[in-house]
């Protein structure tokens, strides 16, 4: 049977909106990527450019049970189109993912709150099957939190996580403001001032 | 100064009546709390500290995380020493208290004071540790006095599994040493906790309990104080070279072969010596040296014996000089009377030889 090739007219949900989506690897702040419940502190090694998505030499393994939370901060606001999770092998593949955006101080209590979107994951060992997201919900993302788990496999091992989307080239910065104690008002023409009475 | 919610688990079991930490382990815990109050609450207005009593029939939550220090200090009047420490239950209650903290922005930390043997098995401890790590809770594990090997091993395994990054600490306080001094130096050296500017910051070589860290830098963490670390390293190296030359000059010609064999070992021994300050270690090292000396004798022993004894004496003297050198260098204020008397005893011993 011929493998289905995605193209602009194939109508697959995974491919729609993805023609203009770029790999957002460059916008991820790799130093601040964090992972909860991993055995070794190597989550930074599974964030790679898309070209290297099939490499299996690094992976993140869940520690206590079969769920992990990966926190991915971006250095600018992005619009996410697709999230790609590649597992190391079939025996340790996750089957469920919940995504949250723009949350600080993450811990496992977060799961009890409603997620932005929930996905069903397939083993995806070669990285071809990326999960398309509901575009409107992922418009202004500074921080992506992924809760990944398996209901059947224990532990789970992830070898690559990739995010595709569109850059906005806007970043959150501290506003440069000047505070004035005595604001200097312009000279006001008393005839042109309109007084509103408040009853 | 991080924004933190720290819950302190106190050990109010009967073991805390023990007087090996003067005046008692319970008092040592109280002083330690004072220290932690300063560090946590004074460093950040919004940080909070809570209290849990881990001993007795039931583990009790005395105080949810609060930034009111008077309330915390007032809780001590309500406490009694009774029962045994319920380690895992106390920690679970602490993590629950943290989970329900009002300000979710605060980082979670549990400070555990252990003054009694832990009843739980290693497996339970590992499981508990992984659960705490999973919830991103930093743990400060402080052992007051109990030096049983199994107990220390359990604590170490627990700590290995719970630590994430460098924010968790394991501090072991031996009987006889001052708890607050030890704690202060450990907390002062960490980048998380910084001492108040008003308090004196003692630059001490970290004591044996935390293990010999950064020994080639003389105990100073190069990440925190790079200049000091480099100065210490250079001084230690110079001292090693000086001693090497001294040894070379003192021994006579026919013994040079033997001496060359000994030098790398002595050098190694001397370098280790420089970092360890305790007197008991000194004696062990001397025995080690004597043993090595006796092992390497191939030539007739009679000639070499007086020279060896002289060598032993010399190295002893050098070792003590080392200590003085180190103390000088660091402006060490840590001169216990006990240590001084022990020092004098050993000096007399070597002179008799």
TrEMBL record, chain A:
Residue ranges annotated for the PITH domain, each copy included: 13-183
Superkingdom in the source lineage: Eukaryota
PROSITE patterns: PITH (PS51532)
InterPro entries reported in the protein's UniProt record: PITH1-like, PITH_dom
PANTHER family: AD039 HT014 THIOREDOXIN FAMILY TRP26 (PTHR12175), PITH DOMAIN-CONTAINING PROTEIN 1 (PTHR12175:SF1)
Record-given protein name: PITH domain-containing protein
Lineage of origin: Eukaryota, Sar, Alveolata, Ciliophora, Intramacronucleata
From TrEMBL, chain B:
Record PROSITE patterns: VWFA
Disordered: region residues: 188-209, 297-353
Lineage, highest ranks first: Eukaryota, Sar, Alveolata, Ciliophora, Intramacronucleata
Domain of life of the source: Eukaryota
Official protein name in the record: VWFA domain-containing protein
Species of the source: Paramecium octaurelia
GO biological process terms, semicolon-separated: proteasome-mediated ubiquitin-dependent protein catabolic process
Biased composition (Low complexity): 194-209, 298-310
GO CC terms of this entry: cytosol; nucleus; proteasome regulatory particle, base subcomplex
One Gene Ontology term of the molecular function aspect: polyubiquitin modification-dependent protein binding
């Amino acid at each position: 049977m011929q493998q289905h090739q995605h193209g602009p007219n194939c109508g697959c949900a995974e491919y729609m909106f993805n023609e203009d989506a770029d790999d957002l690897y460059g916008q991820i702040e790799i130093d601040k990527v964090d992972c909860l419940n991993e055995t070794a502190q190597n989550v930074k090694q599974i964030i790679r450019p898309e070209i290297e998505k099939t490499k299996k030499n690094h992976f993140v393994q869940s520690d206590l049970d079969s769920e992990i939370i990966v926190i991915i901060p971006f250095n600018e606001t992005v619009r996410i189109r697709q999230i790609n999770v590649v597992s190391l092998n079939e025996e340790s593949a996750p089957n469920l993912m919940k995504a949250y955006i723009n949350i600080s101080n993450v811990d496992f209590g977060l799961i009890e709150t409603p997620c932005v979107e929930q996905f069903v994951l397939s083993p995806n060992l070669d990285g071809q099957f990326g999960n398309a997201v509901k575009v409107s919900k992922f418009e202004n993302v500074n921080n992506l939190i992924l809760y990944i788990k398996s209901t059947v496999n224990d532990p789970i091992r992830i070898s690559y996580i990739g995010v595709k989307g569109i850059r906005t080239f806007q970043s959150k910065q501290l506003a440069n403001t000047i505070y004035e104690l005595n604001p200097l008002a312009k000279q006001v023409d008393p005839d042109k001032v309109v007084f509103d009475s408040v009853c | 100064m991080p924004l933190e919610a720290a819950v302190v688990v106190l050990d109010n079991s009967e073991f805390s009546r023990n007087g090996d930490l003067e005046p008692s382990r319970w008092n040592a815990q109280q002083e330690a709390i004072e220290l932690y109050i300063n560090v946590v609450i004074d460093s950040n207005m919004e940080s909070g500290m809570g209290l849990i009593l881990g001993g007795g029939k039931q583990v009790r939550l005395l105080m949810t995380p609060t930034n009111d220090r008077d309330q915390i200090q007032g809780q001590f009047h309500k406490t009694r020493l009774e029962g045994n420490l319920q380690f895992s239950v106390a920690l679970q209650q602490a993590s629950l208290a943290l989970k329900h903290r009002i300000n979710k922005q605060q980082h979670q930390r549990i400070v555990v004071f252990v003054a009694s043997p832990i009843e739980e098995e290693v497996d339970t401890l590992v499981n508990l540790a992984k659960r705490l790590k999973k919830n991103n809770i930093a743990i400060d594990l402080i052992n007051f006095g109990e030096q049983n090997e199994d107990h220390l091993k359990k604590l170490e395994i627990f700590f290995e599994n719970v630590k994430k990054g460098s924010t968790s600490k394991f501090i072991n306080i031996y009987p006889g040493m001052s708890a607050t001094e030890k704690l202060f130096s450990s907390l002062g050296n960490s980048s998380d906790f910084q001492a108040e500017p008003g308090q004196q910051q003692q630059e001490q070589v970290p004591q044996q309990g935390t293990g010999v860290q950064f020994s080639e830098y003389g105990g100073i963490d190069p990440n925190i104080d790079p200049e000091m670390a480099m100065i210490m390293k250079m001084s230690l190296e110079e001292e090693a070279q000086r001693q090497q030359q001294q040894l070379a000059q003192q021994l006579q010609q026919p013994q040079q072969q033997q001496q060359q064999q000994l030098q790398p070992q002595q050098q190694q021994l001397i370098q280790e010596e420089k970092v360890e300050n305790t007197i008991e270690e000194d004696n062990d090292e001397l025995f080690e040296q004597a043993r090595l000396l006796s092992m390497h004798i191939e030539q007739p022993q009679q000639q070499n014996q007086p020279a060896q004894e002289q060598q032993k004496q010399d190295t002893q003297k050098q070792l003590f000089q080392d200590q003085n050198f180190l103390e000088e260098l660091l402006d060490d204020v840590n001169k216990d009377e006990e240590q001084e008397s022990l020092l004098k005893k050993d000096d007399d011993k070597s002179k008799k030889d």
